[in-house]
Amino acid sequence: MTSTDVRDEAEDSGPSGYAAARLRLLTEGARSGPPRRAALAELTDGWLAGLFTAAAPALRGASLIAVGGYGRGELSPRSDLDLVLLHDGSDPEAVAALADRLWYPVWDLGLALDHSVRTPAEARRTAAEDLKVQLGLLDARHLAGDLGLTAALRTTVLADWRNQAPRRLPELQELCAERGERQGELQYLLEPDLKEARGGLRDATALRAVAASWLADAPREGLDDARRRLLDVRDALHLATGRATDRLALQEQDQVAAELGLLDADTLLRQVYEAARVISYASDVTWREVGRVLRSRSVRPRLRTLARERSDFLRRAVAGDGRALGGGKPVAERSPLAEGVVEQDGEAVLAPAARPERDPVLPLRAAAAAAQAGLPLSLHAVRRLAATVRPLPTPWPAEAREQLVTLLGSGRPTVDVWEALEAEGLISRLLPDWERVRCRPQRNAVHVWTVDRHLIETAVRASEFTRRVSRPDPLLVAALLHDIGKGWPGDHSVAGEIIAQDVAARIGFDRADAAVLAALVRHHLLLVETATRRDLDDPATVALVARAVGTQSTLELLHALTEADALATGPAAWSSWRGSLVADLVRRVSAVLAGDLPEDPRAPAAAAVTAEQERLALESVATGGPVLALRAQTEPPAGDTAEAPEGPEPLGVELLIAVPDQPGVLPAVAGVLAVHRLTVRTAELRALELPGGVEGSVLLLDWRVAAEYGSLPQAARLRADLVRALDGSLDVAGRLAERDAAYPRRRGVVAPPPRVTVDPAASRHATVIEVRAQDAPGLLFRIGRALADAGVRMRSAHVSTLGANAVDAFYVTGPEGDPLPGEEAVAVARKLEETLRG
Question: What sign results for the dihedral spanned by CA atoms 108, 150, 206, 38?
Fold first, then answer.
């Protein structure tokens, strides 16, 4: 059945026929796409026109108009019907009766309706007062009634828009910017709003309005296709949810992907991100052009006045020999930036003498010059480069590599210039491996960017640390490549090492530098993972890092890359606490690389004990029970403090606990904190030998906690509950179970199952068991109880929470203080994993 047949059936059968035809179109038709949207609009047009004709066969001076998305023919399954009943004001009572006979059938079918009844004068007045109304009327489309009335309104509204454009376009730009700030950037969000986020359907509509003003036009290539793809996704989302929603929630993404015939949710997100990137870039270019045009219009009258005054002055100042006095030199329209690159009208453009077809380094030189000058790279320049430039030879000439390093080291302006090159496909031509990470989503709450944008953000951060290293070039290129392996299966660090080696050779690094780059990519997580999950007092930990790094210069580069990577990941990935741990590890590794080894490499170095820790430990021995202290913790903002908000960043509270060494301390403390609804951000546990011949050993726990909500409990109450937990009179497990039963689980992201592994090379003095799991209340209590039930002794623990992920390392031994035999260690890890999965 064709769309015309469906429309005829709907017209013949009235509302019920329309409803049946609409349902058949949405359930039996083709997949989401322009044909189905057009068919749905045509079907709805016919039904509404029939309602209009039946309700007012003889009424003149009235018409029914579709506006907004419906006016454009973009009807998704659950879209509102945006309608205006236009009339000349001659018969208000008849128009009111007509409105009732139009609106009520729509409501009776449960369709969303956005409607108004206006005269042309009222419509113009409302449009002048409300920008959103004016934008909707720009897409007005006649449905029924007096065609002349509709045509006159369209002509008038369009003329008003063009006349008022110099005033209204800045208002529209501000509206778009505010919405983008509020909703975020569509091309990076895991649960984006397809309509409201920056780069979404609202921005695409705004670009149409700019084009209608005749002041500027958006880059057309790819824009219509990007808009179509977002509309297709919205159609599938409406069918999957049965709701008029624009939010692409995680739990609907697989179903939406299936509706569109895509492989999986990641493929869906990548297509959404690519479309959003096209619209965002087109918006940037268009608003920049609008600003240029408006500035030139405001300057032109002043220039004409100055030109007249200067001409009069020259006529009066002509000397006897015919030479003009005080003529002055006209201001140059172009300022040179680099060979073949000039500044013009606030953009970096190609010089008239530039020959891209003879100069393969020109794209990188132009990009580096633009970024260094803090200027955008003009659309015309990028397109000319993409169309005419020759490929670079392999290996690259030295100038090309230097220009790439200059671009990467230019700081924040690098982002916009890089995106301009990427919009025309130049990045993938320069670095073919980039295509695998372009627009690739990262389903990790810690990451705020797609893989490719994260790599650029890391380079921006690394540019702040180039004074800390002796060789900035490998640092910046490693920042660009450190996650390049995420486009390949397996461990991205291992895959990335191979790719980095190849890229380094291709862009002209010698063999030694290529090996350093590959090592940086291979080990870019080594420092932060070791510092936060391993016992730094164990010489085996430091020796392992030293062997992997190899040289002082590589360690220096890796330290800077680690910090840049973490800062570019998101706020949960870096803090002064993590920074201090990494710095401590780097100091120890540096000492080993310099040959400064402990006298007995088999024995761990004694950790420094603060006066407060010693006081708590002695008091714990004296009282025979736990002693604790609470202390508020703050830190300065991470990153560039000049751009950060003033004031310290709250870290929660530091909780110091000293307790005589005994089984079950970890689950007891973790359980009491969970009962009191305290979230554990980081935790350290270690055994402390007391000074001065004091007998007995004490377990020292250093925790950073925050109240889940409300205020922190008093220290005395925490201590009392801890005493009860240790002697068994407080049923922690029962209390937690009761609380879980009282609060049903919320629907949300399905987390991957927990994973427990043994790292046999991490220590010679203990068995290291590492746990990776979804963070949840009571998780640490369950881990500690499972280890206690296994009969192992806890030598130390290193707990960290990254977003929704807990990554914990536990140094355990047998009853006699020796590492667990291999099979026993594996059995303990397997049992712990089963417990956490159960």
Answer: positive
Please list, in sequence order, all residues whose beta carbon lies within 8 angstroms of the beta carbon of residue 670, skipping any fewer than 6 positions away: 680, 778, 780, 781, 783, 784
Q: Are 704 and 780 in contact (CB under 8 A)?
A: no
The string of pLDDT tens digits covering residues 230-260 is 999 999 999 999 999 999 998 999 999 999 9
Residue (of 153, 132, 2) closest to 69 by Cα position: 132
User: Rounded to an integer, what distance in angstroms lies between the CA atom of residue 719 and that of residue 626?
Assistant: 7
The rounded distance, in Å, linking the Cα atoms of 544 and 762 is 7
Residue of 237, 355, 228, 226 lying closest to 279 (CA atoms)? 226
Q: Is the pLDDT of residue 649 over 60?
A: no
Query: Which residues share a beta bridge with 336?
Result: 342
Average of per-residue pLDDT across 58-82:
92
Take residue 90 and report the two structure tokens written for it.
Answer: 């001659």
The pLDDT of residue 331 is 40
Least confident of 231-240, 441-450, 463-472, 692-701: 692-701
How buried is residue 203: exposed, middle or buried, by Cβ count under 10 Å (0-12/13-18/19+)? buried
Three-state SS for 410?
coil
Output DSSP code: residue 356.
Answer: G
Own/partner contacts of 125-132, CB < 8 Å, gap of 24 or more, are: 127/157, 127/160, 128/160, 128/164, 131/168, 131/171, 131/172, 131/175
3-state secondary structure of 283: helix
Inter-residue contact 485 to 434 (CB < 8 Å): no
- Strands 678-689 and 793-802 come out as antiparallel
**Separation of alpha carbons 455 and 433, rounded Å:** 13
The 10s digit of each residue's pLDDT in 270-317 is 999 999 999 999 999 999 999 999 988 876 555 455 555 555 544 443
Q: Which residues are CB-contacts of 259 (< 8 A; sequence separation ≥ 6)?
A: 31, 32, 236, 239, 240
Across 167-195, average pLDDT: 93
Query: Residue 373 pLDDT more than 70?
Result: yes
Residue at token pair 């991205």: 492
The alpha-helical segments, DSSP class H, found in 748-809 are 779-789
Q: How far is CA 716 from each of CA 627, 628, 629, rounded to the nearest angstrom? A: 10, 9, 10
Average pLDDT over residues 529-556: 92
Tell me, what's the pLDDT at 471? 87
Instruction: Give 201-208's long-range contacts (Cβ < 8 A, gap of 24+).
Output: 201/227, 201/230, 201/231, 201/234, 201/246, 202/176, 203/176, 203/279, 203/280, 203/283, 204/230, 204/279, 205/135, 206/135, 206/172, 206/175, 206/176, 206/283, 207/279, 207/282, 207/283, 207/286, 208/138, 208/139
For residue 457, name the pLDDT band (cuts at 50, 70, 90): very high
Q: At residue 726, what are phi and psi to the nearest 5 degrees?
A: -70, -35
Distances (CA, A) of 819 to 205, 737, 760, 791, 795: 65, 34, 10, 13, 10
Answer positive or negative: Cα dihedral of 546, 552, 557, 563.
positive
**pLDDT for residue 13 is more than 60:** no
- Long-range contacts (CB closer than 8 Å, 24 or more residues apart) made by 201-207: 201/227, 201/230, 201/231, 201/234, 201/246, 202/176, 203/176, 203/279, 203/280, 203/283, 204/230, 204/279, 205/135, 206/135, 206/172, 206/175, 206/176, 206/283, 207/279, 207/282, 207/283, 207/286
| Position 291, amino acid | G
Is there a contact between 256 and 237 (Cβ–Cβ < 8 Å)? Answer: yes
**C-alpha to C-alpha distance for 603 and 598, rounded to whole angstroms:** 9
Q: What is the mean pLDDT of the chain?
A: 86
